[in-house]
Amino acid sequence: MNTKIPEKLIVDNNMSIKDAMHIIDEGGCKTAFFLEDGKLKGTITDGDVRRYFLKGGSIEDKADKIANHDPKFFYDWEKKDYKKYMIENMITALPIINNDGQLVRIEMLSESELAVCKIDKTVPIVMMAGGLGTRLKPYTEIIPKPLIPIGEKTITEHIFDRFLLYGCDELYMIVNYKKQLIEAYFNDIEKYKNLSFIEEPFFMGTAGGISLLKDCLNADFFLINCDVLIDFDYYSIWKRHVEEKNIVTIVSAEKRIVIPYGTVSIGENETVCSLIEKPEIKYNVNTGMYLCNSKIYKYIDKNEKIDMPDLIKRCLHAGERIGNVLINEQDWYDMGQPKELKNMLNKFVNY
Question: Is residue 1 part of a domain?
């Protein structure tokens, strides 16, 4: 537990939401602290930022506009088990103030401290690892995508290890391409002793393979592609899914694309209506991580080849509830393309 006051966690009156986002991303605890003359005036979390954008807010607005001005805190003279309180209340950073309201220190928990025993151990993890890895050729002509190293561990070990932090150790890997290499690699690793391999009889798409688990899984389970790493609180995803009683919960990331040119809006007779310099387009992008309820099996035929987007469309057409958890683009790492693989290496080589 870290109790210092890093300057990189502090937001002041002059900062924009964009500035606050940088502080939240770089601070490591997903929270920034709003101070005025050294006194705690509020907090800003990544969740506050996401909700504001979903309501149409601008990144250039003042950070104070989205601050929580009634944050949880403790006085420095109070005797409190901070770690226990933070785990129980899902808080990664807790401000400690004196009687004058001055920020004295910040109690912080690492993700591993916060993650312990939060998710029901009976929630299985299913990884789709049977694809050819076409986008990563020529790497995948030699080594299957699930075994591509990111630092000292494979991408799949990074993914599984994050779930192990949350107490989830019932692991399944649906394999096909170079399956013998994948199985041989993991069979000798003790911490994955509860890992089971499900072999596809043919390439079944990004969702067809889960039909092979119909007799194994009878509750909610995580489904994740083998080339994505989500740097987010998995407990909050699971909790939302259960509370909303979704058949599927999609984890999506806000993707911002800047057009590097000035754009021209043209009306009738090719008259110019407006000019916009370097406009920014925002999309919510499917990351390849889901939480599924076992009811989903009734929408998959046995041994059917189908991709997850098509399966979700079937559920929507049938009137089923599909939920969504929106995360920051910076919390989503996709190894599926060489450029993104390089970004992941830069980020997690010392993971």
Answer: no
Report if residue 2 sits inside a domain: no
Domain boundary among 54, 86, 109: 109
Residue 287 lies in a domain: yes
Same domain, 261 and 124: yes
Q: In the numeric block, which tokens belong to residue 229?
A: 């790493």
pTM above 0.90, yes or no: no
Query: Where is the domain boundary, 81, 109, 137?
Result: 109
Which amino acid, 326? L
Q: Could you give the strand order of the β-sheet that contains 221-225, starting from the edge strand earlier in sequence? A: 195-199, 171-175, 125-129, 221-225, 280-292, 248-258, 322-327
CATH, residue 304: 3.90.550.10
**100: containing domain:** 7-109
Burial label, 242 (beta-carbon count in 10 A; 0-12, 13-18, 19+): middle
pLDDT tens-digit map of 104-162 = 888 877 666 665 546 766 789 999 988 776 776 766 677 888 888 887 788 899 899 88
Q: State pLDDT tens for residues 272-303.
A: 888 888 888 888 899 999 999 999 999 998 88
Cβ pair 134, 83 in contact under 8 A: no
Query: Domain for residue 148, yes or no?
Result: yes
Between CA 61 and CA 20 the distance in angstroms is 10
Closest CA to 159 of 186, 131, 199, 122: 186
Please check whether residue 97 is in contact with residue 40, taking contact to mean a CB–CB distance below 8 angstroms: yes
Burial class (CB in 10 A: 0-12, 13-18, 19+), 315: buried
